[in-house]
Design goal:
Helix content: 25-40%
Structural class: alpha+beta
Largest sheet: 5 strands, mixed
Shape: globular
Radius of gyration: 17 Å
Number of helices: 5
Strand order of the largest sheet: 4-5-8-10-9
Order of helices and strands: EEEEHHEEEHEHHEE
Number of strands: 10
Distance between the termini: 12 Å
Length: 182
């Protein structure tokens, strides 16, 4: 894919039990770098995002999993349900554009199971602040209000980005919703 023009950047597809791009085998050589959006939001650390993608590309990496969420905390993308920091969205767009520049596809996680960066605990906290009778963090999976908060976040994340979102995988039973950006 190295010489492929930007407008020819094709979606990864499945053929039998093989991932393919343009009918050629596509191998996932991936890495996880959760902090890219937060670093991109700060001018003093933004260059680290570019460095990561440069280095990953130079050793043949093809996919990066990173966070596209930070709920209710320092440098939060989502400050409260459906209230976003536009500067952090711009930082996320920077991450996406840098990944594309270096031909690295992204898997964007939109929530997590832990308190770091908010996760399901933050959704439960927001629910309690709204007067909901919630007993534990696992209410995130079943309470209709918390599910509506999360669905709204998935929708906002997929439409607010300035970068093209090609595939959005949504399964209500899954905690991690991944956006695969091509």
């Amino acid at each position: 894919m190295g010489d492929m023009e930007e407008d020819e950047w094709q979606m990864v597809q499945k053929k039998g039990n093989q991932f393919v791009v343009n009918d050629q085998p596509f191998y996932i050589n991936g890495f996880n770098t959760y902090w890219l959006m937060v670093f991109a939001a700060d001018e003093s650390t933004r260059g680290k995002v570019t460095e990561v993608f440069q280095q990953a590309s130079s050793v043949g990496m093809t996919v990066c999993r990173t966070w596209a969420f930070n709920d209710g905390q320092w440098r939060a993308l989502q400050k409260s349900p459906s209230v976003y920091d536009e500067e952090v969205f711009k930082a996320l767009d920077f991450v996406v554009s840098e990944a594309k520049k270096y031909k690295i596809r992204l898997i964007l996680s939109l929530a997590n199971n832990w308190e770091a960066y908010g996760g399901k605990a933050q959704y439960v906290k927001w629910g309690k602040e709204a007067g909901l009778n919630l007993t534990n963090d696992d209410d995130f999976f079943s309470h209709p209000t918390l599910r509506s908060y999360y669905k709204a976040h998935v929708k906002a994340s997929s439409f607010k980005s300035k970068q093209p979102l090609v595939t959005l995988i949504w399964t209500e039973e899954l905690m991690f919703v991944c956006c695969v950006l091509q």
